[in-house]
Write a sequence for this structure.
């Protein structure tokens, strides 16, 4: 399902481009470049490739990355449903000592849809794959400890999942599914008892693409879907109607969600859409905080052609400001840059020199200002910089716009 949705995301971008027949599309892709004469002056911070590891001799690529709280261990999910574990040295300057945790071999038809370390230690890892179960591994022994699969006689539930997450205290797992028999499910499991807890199935109409628990509140959950809705739940409530706190209509297909905080310490949800747009919303009222369409972000990274653009992730800095990591498909994805999200505009932030692949996932260690990326050529890359930003300079505090995106799905 992860591969299918990524294909959907690429097709969605293509549908928005004018004159998309093969010859004109090829011409569009070929015509790209910087809109500035000197990239160094445009991007105040330069990140360099510090270490890089090839994950396979086959044509496998990186779908997912996961790291423990202290960034001492890196989990890598591959397109062939394999999982590799790598150590990160204490200085954050190299990746080493890898071994295979799961390896389904060449020709596997399933893929990894998420990796989460269960608690603050680097020992317990949850692995989600599109063939259905979420598996719990103890990395001290590399042994599988449990499987979380939903089984019920009340209604049919799809075997495959599309995304999952564990909550802040490591006690609950939530899995999102594809649409099945006109229903889409959020499935809940108790980690300790390994039992299913229940399911929500009325709040989304199409495939769930992103499930994210709040970083510190174990009861707060947001989910996003191809139907364009972001739903916010308080899962301590007894049923779905009472649990649903807010619904935000992004008017697009949701690809990736993340939690942030603004300068007033209010919870913010960021959304990357399947068409490479960026939106963020205030959690409580659902008001729009920021919205940048693909061409605006392309200009932000100082490139010409939106047809090549790929918005990868939204990351938090130490002061809770947000930056976007973005790249292009031009020349095997050699362009990788970041922009800071300001009140009403995007600020060029960092240029990454030496990228060799189209990046599919990224992790950022804000305390040490190091970035990990993985992508379609099968590399895990560690990026560092001698001079790095501690904050994104903004002109005044970020204010919430008055545009409302609330919608009740019932």
């Amino acid at each position: 399902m992860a591969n299918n949705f990524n294909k959907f995301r690429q097709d969605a971008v293509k549908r928005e481009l004018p004159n998309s027949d093969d010859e004109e599309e090829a011409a569009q892709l070929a015509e790209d470049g910087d809109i500035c004469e000197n990239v160094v002056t445009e991007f105040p911070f330069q990140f360099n490739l510090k270490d890089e590891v090839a994950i396979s001799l086959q044509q496998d690529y990186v779908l997912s990355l996961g790291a423990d709280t202290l960034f001492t261990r890196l989990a890598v999910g591959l397109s062939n449903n394999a999982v590799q574990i790598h150590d990160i040295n204490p200085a954050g300057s190299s990746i080493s000592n890898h071994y295979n945790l799961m390896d389904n071999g060449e020709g596997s038809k399933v893929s990894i849809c998420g990796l989460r370390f269960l608690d603050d230690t680097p020992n317990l890892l949850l692995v989600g794959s599109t063939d259905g179960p979420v598996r719990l591994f103890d990395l001290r022994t590399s042994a599988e400890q449990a499987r979380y699969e939903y089984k019920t006689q009340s209604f049919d539930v799809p075997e495959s999942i599309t995304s999952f997450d564990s909550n802040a205290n490591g006690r609950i797992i939530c899995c999102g599914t594809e649409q099945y028999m006109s229903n889409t499910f959020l499935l809940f499991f108790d980690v300790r008892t390994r039992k299913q807890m229940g399911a929500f199935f009325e709040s989304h109409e199409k495939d769930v693409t992103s499930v994210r628990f709040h970083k510190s509140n174990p009861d707060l959950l947001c989910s996003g879907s191809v139907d364009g809705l972001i739903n916010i739940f308080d899962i301590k409530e007894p049923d779905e109607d009472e649990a649903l706190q807010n619904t935000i209509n992004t008017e697009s297909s949701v690809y990736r969600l993340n939690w942030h905080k603004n300068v007033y310490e209010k919870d913010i949800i960021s959304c990357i859409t399947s068409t490479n747009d960026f939106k963020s919303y205030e959690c409580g009222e659902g008001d729009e905080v920021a919205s940048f369409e693909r061409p605006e972000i392309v200009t932000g990274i100082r490139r010409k052609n939106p047809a090549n653009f790929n918005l990868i992730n939204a990351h938090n800095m130490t002061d809770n400001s947000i930056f976007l990591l973005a790249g292009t498909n031009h020349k095997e994805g050699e362009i990788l840059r970041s922009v800071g999200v300001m009140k009403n505009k995007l600020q060029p932030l960092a240029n990454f020199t030496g990228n060799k692949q189209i990046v599919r996932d990224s992790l950022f260690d804000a305390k040490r200002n190091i970035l990990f990326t993985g992508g379609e050529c099968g590399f895990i890359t560690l990026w560092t910089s001698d001079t790095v930003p501690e904050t994104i300079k903004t002109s005044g505090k970020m204010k919430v716009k008055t545009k409302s995106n609330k919608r009740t799905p019932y």
